[in-house]
Write a structure and sequence with these properties.
By secondary structure, the protein is mostly helical. It has one domain. It is built from 11 helices and 2 strands. The chain has a two-stranded antiparallel sheet with strand order 1-2. The protein starts with a helix and ends in a 9-residue tail after the last helix.
Length: 273
Amino acid sequence: MLSRKNVGQTAYWFIFVNLLLAGILLIYLPDTLSSFLKEDALAENVGTVFLFLTSLALFYAAIVLYRQPSDRQQLSWLRILLLVVAGVAFFWATGEEISWGQRIFNWSTPETLAKVNQQGETNLHNLNTRFFNNALETIILLAIVLPTAFHIKKKKQLFGFPLPSLSLVLGFQLVACYVTYHYIKPQDYLAYLVLPYFLYLFSKKRDWQNVGRVVLNVLLVIFVGVVNVQLKKQFPGNGPREFREYLFSFLCFCYALEMMIEFKNATRPVGVI
């Protein structure tokens, strides 16, 4: 039976293995990594599938929540609405990634849009790639900082939604620390600062399994950071961003699954980190 624990742990190891392999490929087989990350290649296509699956999972979670009796009808309706809105947003992101079928059916971009689109495609996110890249980085950072802050306050949910499991938080932490260029923005250090906190917390509880995972995160962040900075010239164009989007879309799908499972098991306490 599918459980939050299984989903979270699978997500964490998926991210860990992907980042480790990317670092190894960048050292020994950079051309193979390039073919995986280039425009319209496997990473982007698989990421698009995960975006679509996230949309479906969110819609299904809304249906599950709708079918449940609740004494707090106003809050339930608000949560249903937010899930539907999030599902629509991920469906829109799916369409944007494939330029609404342009890449599949190979039709031309309307002239007005082609003039302002940075890649000459039928989508909106390439009108201002810097804005959307910054938005993505902010969302990833919030997916780390918010659950950690609520964990410190011993709170398990936000507006009735279960927070991401610890496994997902550690997965988002790795994605946030996937440094591919020359700089780290000041706010990005928050993604690093959660590691000492979790290391202290789990050491205090003698939870050696999670201590081990935090240590692995530290080692992988150092390895990937050093490799990416030293071999940055071998990156294929926009490949690193495509890789981060691919990993992010997978984690979003897993979080949608966690919520869906939590709502289906509403008789149990809502979400734990």
